[in-house]
Amino acid sequence: MINDFIFHLFSYLCSTIKKHPIIMKNFIKGFRFTPSNYPAEVEAKIQKYRKQGYKLPPRKVLRTPEQLEGIRESAKINTALLDYISENIREGMSTEEIDVMVYDFTTKHGAIPAPLNYEGFPKSVCTSINDVVCHGIPSKTEILQSGDIINVDVSTIYKGYFSDASRMFMIGDVSPEMRKLVQVTKECMEIGIAAAQPWKQLGDVGAAIQEHAEKNGFNVVRDLCGHGVGMQFHEAPDVEHFGRRGTGMMIVPGMTFTIEPMINMGTYEVFVDEADGWTVCTDDGLPSAQWENMILITETGNEILTY
């Protein structure tokens, strides 16, 4: 009796499945790439490039208006935090003091420092001095001295939305060579942002940055890159700061990502300090600099969200 019941149930399900594809064809008019509130012109362009075989970003990284509202609020706190650090960073302070400043400011604004405990990172901010490329860990024994250059990289979570940016600071009497490195690195970031236009490709961004760095006698770090950010700390796409024009993922309105070139005075080769598993240093011990902004790709260009 049970076998008869299973047989009849199976027969019914099979007959139902056979009917439904005909009904579904009347429902589904085609594959839509963008969220429903995106302009028809953007959807049409994406469909055109999809048919031509271009690499497109995942649909989930195209931000909705509601998401952008949250991301912008997070970005305001992140930028205000960097302004606060700019006003207070000084010769003779420890990088641990910077970490305390970041934690206190962020939490007082109802937010969370994104680096804290991220994959085991022990602090609220990355402080990278001289030959440290990135991911430097604040310490009570690391004291800022005249002649140092330091990157302070802050990332904020506010009500579940993420933002990210970093700035360079020159402490006391910095050599002309290091001042040039800091300035050219900032120019590389700005040139990369200018190249990040809708319907271009990420290779265009990397090529523009690489050309400017190498024209000035510096080298672009290859092993680290910018990234999507907004709903998570690190999302698609990877944004490399070197490359060839006309290659890579297409840049589409609605994407939010960082441009954060790391430029070395010497070789582009780097290594991770075995002592902590985080600190990335230049292979030859020469200085490195980094600037980072987070941008939103719009229909007509881009909007800087954090700086």
TrEMBL record:
Entry-linked Pfam families: Peptidase_M24
Catalysed transformations (reactions): Release of N-terminal amino acids, preferentially methionine, from peptides and arylamides
Highest taxon, organism lineage: Bacteria
Residues bound to a divalent metal cation 2: D164, H227, E260, E292
Residue span, Peptidase M24 domain: 69-299
One function term, GO molecular function aspect: metalloaminopeptidase activity
Cofactor note: Binds 2 divalent metal cations per subunit. Has a high-affinity and a low affinity metal-binding site. The true nature of the physiological cofactor is under debate. The enzyme is active with cobalt, zinc, manganese or divalent iron ions. Most likely, methionine aminopeptidases function as mononuclear Fe(2+)-metalloproteases under physiological conditions, and the catalytically relevant metal-binding site has been assigned to the histidine-containing high-affinity site.
List of residues binding substrate: H135, H234
Primary role: Removes the N-terminal methionine from nascent proteins. The N-terminal methionine is often cleaved when the second residue in the primary sequence is small and uncharged (Met-Ala-, Cys, Gly, Pro, Ser, Thr, or Val). Requires deformylation of the N(alpha)-formylated initiator methionine before it can be hydrolyzed.
Subunit: Monomer.
Family: Belongs to the peptidase M24A family. Methionine aminopeptidase type 1 subfamily.
NCBIfam families according to UniProt: met_pdase_I, PRK12318.1
Protein name: Methionine aminopeptidase
Species of provenance: Bacteroides thetaiotaomicron (strain ATCC 29148 / DSM 2079 / JCM 5827 / CCUG 10774 / NCTC 10582 / VPI-5482 / E50)
